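Progress report, Aim 2. The chain analyzed during this reporting quarter is listed below.
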Amino acid sequence: MNLQQLEYLVALDTYRQFVLAAEKCHVTQPTLSMQLQKLEEELGVLLFDRTTKGVQPTAVGAKVVQQARQVVREVQQLREVVQLEKGELIGELRLGIIPTLAPYLVPLFLVELVERYPQLRVQVEELQSAQIIQQLKDNQLDIGLLVTPLDDRQLREVPVLEEPFLGYISENHELYAQATIIPQDMGAPGLWLLQQGHCFRHQVLNICAPSPAATARPFTYESGSIETLKELVRHNHGYTLVPELSVLQELHSPMVKRFEAPQPVREISLVVHHGFVRLPLLATLRDIILSKVPERLQAGKVGQKIRWK
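Predicted structure tokens for the chain:
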């Protein structure tokens, strides 16, 4: 058994295809297959079931993969510790970010981060919260940018922002005339929501617990995009809640309404596995983000944190 075989094992479990796993490991498919076969022979167990639909870990294979991921993570951390001692920051940074943050935060930090660390290959992927959490645990991501708290002992949270929820209301809606709004106003008809699976949707429901009448329509439409919801409202249809970063250029529009104090906010954090060692990189990323957004959004300001679970 060697580290290379464990890396191939983890890759096959991640991608569930021999060809794709080999491509990600930069080896030929026969090489990867042969090494995994040798590992199975050494252990005396079948690690994967091969079918026409792909590969699936066996019961014992799943346990071996879990342990292999831990070994691969620890070897990676060992290399990173040495890099830090040598003053180097090279290799790959895999960052996952939720879709309701990505359009508004990634353009603010990505270019500067790459400029500061030119030897670092930065890979950013939009994923929902549950996917980011699992991939951080499986060593498929290094850093997550998502809504917290997570209440997960395997993960470390570094709060960055507390972003207010704002009302976004069409001019022909009854709430448009109000200077501010309160959660009880969200019982009014015409509320647009993100589709299932988005933490932002759960937070909106936790803020206002709308009645069935609030979302009742002669048709059904749930979007995966904040921008789509805003467009629906702009075309004189109802109202929705949006994060402040999505309307920084529209804050003086009469369509945008703040909640009365205490404002509901979502806590946004950088999240890593407790074994993450590249802490200077984490601090730099946090500083870049904070330098690009209004100071009032900095974590620790007054607001009512809304949980997403």
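The radius of gyration is 23 Å. The first helix runs from residue 3 to 15. These observations will guide the mutagenesis work planned for the next reporting period.
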